[in-house]
């Protein structure tokens, strides 16, 4: 991981609440805390994996980081500039710097447009390139994702899932971004095709000096690609650390549960082992730790207090939000 310590995106106590407020008659409307009290630095050149069960807030956090959505609380800065301010004042610059790759490659591409038109759009609108510059850039982009130039004249439905995802990656790359948010980019693909796409991503990252935010519920994919990993549960980051620390020395009982229910190799934790019915009601969150109902270590204190995330048990760079973390193995 190059220049590992330069912060690119700094998230300070970010929060995103959906709904809420009051009716005309003063009755409180239900609110969902999709992201709560998230503090995290994304370092330049790293791949930060974000893992957790469906509904834990991964996509909401990613949308906040890319300026597609704004936090209802806290602050997010990109290279020191306030993202909320930037999103209003200079959305184009932000759109160029942070690009998105979605889970479903085919439906994220406009079916009525040729690949050439799709890939040219950011070159025209964001980079203001002339025709000759665009032709050169299109050639580079197709080469970067290992697709022959003939594919430029085809329509999205003519592509396989893996090819369409490579087009999705080329489109993200077209804007010459610094960060690419990859939201479940290989989840819809066959395992053999997943490996191809992950290899391309790995290659592009070093070639273009990119930073990746890699969201997935698939632990084996996150383990294979990430430098650091953030584990989310019910809108909060419950564990954060280097890939090796989180996978080899997990501290949070939830991380344990995820890892134990998906033993390596080929682990794929999807549901977290337990019944998802045990997830708290997002409209009626518990007072204390949201993991209490599923936790083997929970105490009365956990039921009434939300554990802060800190390095107390993990050491430098390895944080967990737990009053009673799993015991760290000694070498
Ligand atoms: N626009 C919205 N309006 C209301 N609630 C929302 C909205 N977007 C997300 N939520 C809620 O916020 C919580 C977090 O959702 P989010 O999509 O971020 O989770 P996720 O971890 O990305 O899940 P998945 O893996 O299923 O995409 C969920 O309870 C979800 O229902």
TrEMBL record:
It is a peripheral membrane protein. One of its GO terms (cellular component) is plasma membrane. InterPro entries: AAA+_ATPase, ABC_transp_ATP-bind, ABC_transporter-like_ATP-bd, ABC_transporter-like_CS, Oligopep_ABC_C, P-loop_NTPase. GO terms for biological process: peptide transport; transmembrane transport. Pfam families: ABC_tran (PF00005), oligo_HPY (PF08352). PANTHER family: D,D-DIPEPTIDE TRANSPORT ATP-BINDING PROTEIN DDPF-RELATED (PTHR43776:SF7), TRANSPORT ATP-BINDING PROTEIN (PTHR43776). This is Putative D,D-dipeptide transport ATP-binding protein DdpF. It comes from Martelella mediterranea DSM 17316.
């Amino acid at each position: 991981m190059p220049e590992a310590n330069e912060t690119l995106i700094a998230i300070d106590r970010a929060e995103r609440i959906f709904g809420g407020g009051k009716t005309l008659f003063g009755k409180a409307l239900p609110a969902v805390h999709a992201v709560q009290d998230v503090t995290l630095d994304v370092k330049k050149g790293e791949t930060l994996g974000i893992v957790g069960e469906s509904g834990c807030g991964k996509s909401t956090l990613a949308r906040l980081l890319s300026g597609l959505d704004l936090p209802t609380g806290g602050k997010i800065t990109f290279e020191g500039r306030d993202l909320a301010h930037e999103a209003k004042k200079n959305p184009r610059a932000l759109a160029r710097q942070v690009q998105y790759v979605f889970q479903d490659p085919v439906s994220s591409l406009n079916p009525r447009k040729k690949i050439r038109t799709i890939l040219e759009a950011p070159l025209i609108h964001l980079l203001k390139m002339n025709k000759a510059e665009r032709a050169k850039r299109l050639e580079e982009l197709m080469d970067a994702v290992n697709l022959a130039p003939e594919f430029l004249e085809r329509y999205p439905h003519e592509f396989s899932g893996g090819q369409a995802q490579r087009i999705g990656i080329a489109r993200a790359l077209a804007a010459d971004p610094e960060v690419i948010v990859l939201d479940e980019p290989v989840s819809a693909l066959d395992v053999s095709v997943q490996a191809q796409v992950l290899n391309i991503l790995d290659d592009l990252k070093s070639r273009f000096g990119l930073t990746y935010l890699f969201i997935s519920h698939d632990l084996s994919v996150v383990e294979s690609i990430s430098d650091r990993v953030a584990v989310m549960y019910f809108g909060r980051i419950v564990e954060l650390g280097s890939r090796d620390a989180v996978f080899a020395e997990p501290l949070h009982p939830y991380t344990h549960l995820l890892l134990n229910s998906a033993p390596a190799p080929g682990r794929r934790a999807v549901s977290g082992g337990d019944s998802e019915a045990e997830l708290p009601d997002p409209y009626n969150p518990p007072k204390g730790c949201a993991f209490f109902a599923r936790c083997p270590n929970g105490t009365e204190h956990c039921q009434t207090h939300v554990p802060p995330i800190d390095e107390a048990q993990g050491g430098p760079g390895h944080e967990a939000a737990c009053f009673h973390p799993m015991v760290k193995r000694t070498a």
